[in-house]
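tool_call: predict_structure(chain=1)
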Amino acid sequence: MNGYEFMARHPFLTFFLVLTVCHYFSECIKYLAGYTEETNEQTDQEEKS
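tool_result:
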């Protein structure tokens, strides 16, 4: 059974997996974006002092 057959037989499970993966990637992107912003703020504070 390939992926397309699985998606055809289990549409709700496939939908749940897609939502889970999208949520995971969005959290990763938010974490990475927040991490870079925090490091920029730290370097700005170091330059002022």
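agent: The chain has a mean pLDDT of 82. Proceeding to next step.
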